[in-house]
Structures are given as C-alpha cells and as structure tokens.
Amino acid sequence: MSASRLWVALDTPSLATAEAWIRALWPHRHYKVGLELFTRAGPEAVARWAREGCAIFLDLKLHDIPHTVAGAVAAARELGAEMVTVHASGGPAMLEAAAQAKGAMAVVAVTVLTSLEGRDLARLGWSGETAELVRRWAELAHSCGVDGVVCSAHEVADLRQIWPESRRVVPGLRLLAGTEADQKRVATPWAAVQAGATDLVVGRAVTQDPEPARRLAEVLQAIGAR
To answer: What is the pLDDT of residues 100-151, one digit of tens each?
Structure first.
C-alpha cells in the first residue's frame, strides 16, 4: 500500500489543533476532514490545505435528495477535495447524481457505520446479518457509478471479491486490541490491508500519541507503505 492511501483523521473542533497536527506529521499529506471540523472551520480551511499541497478526504456522509447531493459533491470538487463520502442508503438516484457531479474526484459510499452492529440494525428494521447489508449497499453503489465504499475491515474481503476495482475505505482502526471507544466493528491497520483495504483512516491512535510523527511512521512501516 502507498502512504498516499493512509488518511489521518483531523477529528478536532479546533482549526488551530488540526493545523498543528498537519505540521507535526509533515511531509505526510493525506488528511480526512469530518463533519465537526468542517462545520466549525468551514470550506475555506479545506481549500487552503488543498492549495498548500494536502490531499483532503472530505467525510461529510452526504444523504439528501439527488439534486442537493449533486450540488454538494460539485462544491466539494471545487474546493479541491480528492474524495468525498455519501450514504449508500440514499438510494440509486442519489448515488447516480453524485457520480455524475464528481468529475475527477472520488466518491465513496458509506455502507454500515462502524459504530453499528447487528442489534443496532435490528432496531432500524434490518433483520439480516450486517455483512449482508454491507454487500447489498456495495452492489448498489457499484451499479450507480461511484468509485467505492466505506466499510469495516470485517466486510472488506468480501467486497474485494465482488468489486475488485473499487476503492475500499476502512475506518474504525485501532493499533491495539481493546481500544474500540465508540466504534464496534474495528481492526488493526495491518489486518485491514491484508483483508483488502485500499484506503485506511487512522485518527486518535496517531493524533493523540505524545509523538504523533513517530506513531504514524510505525503504522506506515507496519502496513508496508512505500
């Protein structure tokens, strides 16, 4: 795996903190901006970091009517984002609209959030296995022309089989077992790569370390990044 496929999550409400992390981890240039930071810092932070040479994965998990999502995807593309997320559960018309608006930017469809497991899905009306729902939504995303999916490491091997050319983005990664926090379907980065992940998202395990650059280097070495 290339180092360019490891995204460090800037999971903080503080623009100053995010910028400090980027400086500390430089020359690593691939960062994920999620809802909290984007809502507080606004699109200009994304545009500025993109102009300064960072690749930005804009994790907004868009889910709305097709016209609205198409407009949001186009706006993300114009900001200079390299990848943006939409929800597969938004349906085929929404996914197709996102695919048509993306240009050269990648759009990946979120299947089942890594914070959910079987009993959570049952309360939402889904009685089957989590892996089955992930597969169904991945197949839908594939048919609608987006570039890939977001899934847990538990499902990524199956999705590699049914959609080998896809981007398979795996969050919920932990460097040590037993550090799940608010996520349930988790794995280590090296296990995710072995299962078939093309993109990894690592956040607190790196950014909260006393020596984040050293920790990032260890992760990159462990996954064989070039």
So the answer is: 999 999 999 999 887 877 788 888 888 788 889 999 999 999 999 999 999 9
Q: What is the C-alpha to C-alpha distance for residues 192 and 130, in angstroms, rounded to an integer?
A: 17
Query: How many whole angstroms separate alpha carbon 32 and alpha carbon 150?
Result: 13
Question: Do residues 61 and 73 make contact, with C-beta atoms less than 8 angstroms apart?
Answer: no
Residue 18 is encoded by which pair of tokens?
């995010």
Q: pLDDT tens digits, residue range 181-192?
A: 445 556 788 889
For the whole model, what pTM was predicted?
Answer: 0.90
Nearest-angstrom CA–CA distance, 161 and 143: 15
Among 32, 61, 102, 184, the active-site one is: 61
Closest alpha carbon to 206 in 194, 191, 189: 189
Q: Is 102 a catalytic residue?
A: no
Provide the strand spans (E) within the chain.
6-9, 30-33, 55-62, 83-87, 106-110, 148-150, 167-170, 199-202
Q: Say whether domain 3-222 belongs to CATH 3.20.20.70.
A: yes
